[in-house]
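FAQ: What does a multi-protein file look like?

Like this. Sequence, then tokens, then the next protein.
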Amino acid sequence: MGTGKLLLKVPSTLRFVMDGEMPSYLLAKDFILHILGEITVSGGTYKSMEFVGSTVESLNMEERMTLCNMVVEAGGKNGVVPADSTTYKYLEDKTSVAFEPVYSDENARFLSEYRLDVSKLEPVVAKPHSPDNRALVRECKDVKIDRVYIGSCTGGKTQDFLAAAKVFLASGKKVKVPTFLVPATQKVWMDIYTLPVPESGGKTCSQIFEEAGCNTPASPTCGACVGGPRDIYARMNEPQVCVSTTNRNFPGRMGHKDGQIYLASPYTAAASAFTGFVTDPREFLQ
């Protein structure tokens, strides 16, 4: 305050180059959980994490948001996807204010560069009690679960619910465990009730969820993702096992300190709801 200046440390950058054809059973949540397993929850401390490559360019904005949302789980300062036509299209009805995109210099130096061939990746989860405790979903097939939670800023976007609905539609079965649906915003809640799911014959997500026996989609909230008081919707008040699309699985994160949280993509969460076990979505999507 005495100088009128604020000291800011410019973070170094970790660059993640992701190429290869994206398998139909993977989502951005699988990518970021894979990366966390590689660099750990401290591997990005006070660093910028930049995601580039043909796979990233093919992702819609909400999937890009999933990548950038979870860099904080690695200690990251921020997550960056270079602006492109997808970005500009997304912003058309969001703002009329002029803006100028900023990109890494052509001769920029990166602290580290990681390359991923996503065509060789498999669905993954983060086992209790850390987002970097990575395991292949198929390695956890014997883990019996008590509930599924699809929601939060990371896993409660419109595209996340459309992905879950795709699995529910492919199965045509009833869920075997309580399945909680918590949209991130009011717009997402509206989309659940109004947007037709592709190849569903015009059905909305809400109709598909109801047919599958899921709980009625809740009002937008952080919900059980932050634990909170015992009366928070879908809070874990008992030491249960949950597959969740949220971003953190530390002890007590969703309520009970002895709860077991497996972080997963909406595909994996929906597949697990049908079996009552941690389940590879390829069982329903191939």
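And here is the next protein:
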Amino acid sequence: MPDPQALLSHCRAMPLWRSKPRVVSLVPTQLRRLLDHSAGVHWLRDLDVIWVGGAALLIDLADRARALEVRLAPCYGATETAAMVAAQSPERFLAGEQSYGTALGDVELRLESSGARLVRTLRLAIGRWREGALQPLVDGNGWWRSGDGASLEWAADGKSLLTMHGRLDDAIHSGGETVFPDQLAQRLLRKAHADGCALDGVLFFPVDHPEWGQRLVALVRCREGCLATDQWHQVQSCLEGLTRDWLPAERPSRWLQCPDLDVTDAGKWERKRWQAWVGLQ
């Protein structure tokens, strides 16, 4: 957001700004930039519903928004489903719920034994163009397999809540264990935030290992920017303590401080870029 103050002033000058529900859709990168600016925070707090999707909503970002009573509605969808298929209400978000909410009224969700999320809805695309022909998107019963790992959990009010765990094709096999790097990164961010560890961003990805097949490496962006060696060692010790009870295959074999670590404007990781960066260290 180049000028949150201009955005706020323009919206508040609109005659009907406060007379009708105010709804907007953002990706996490846009949300973070607005939260970093006081005028951006005021603009966000003026809104009734803020759909957030397109990429994972990181724990630290959700916690910042919740503390400021920003009415986020985390949602999940795909191009193939014509946007969102599940969404959380702002009320449930502000109450501390960490999920992508419930399926919309015209959507059915279920899981494969592998944990892959399946979707059935009349909004699904009719196919995907491959090798010069339109290939069907759904199986014989109308279900589309997204390739995203997920879980469905029952809330206290009996509603089924969708939680996403990252792409199944991003899973690695390490020492006989199947490991989901994105899920572990979210888990670490949650624990670090709760314990006051100065962690602002983390990316896990695999490197080849002669004994384990693959091992995880962790790139870390600290809240205070680039830390001196002794300060970094303190943070690294904190992170090692937070992951001490994890399975051996889940614990990173290396922790690397990376002050420039960030997602793209679309909220995605450029994994090849960061793998190349590690190769230079």
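Q: Is there any per-entry metadata?
A: Some entries carry free-text notes. For the entry above: The chain has a mean pLDDT of 87.
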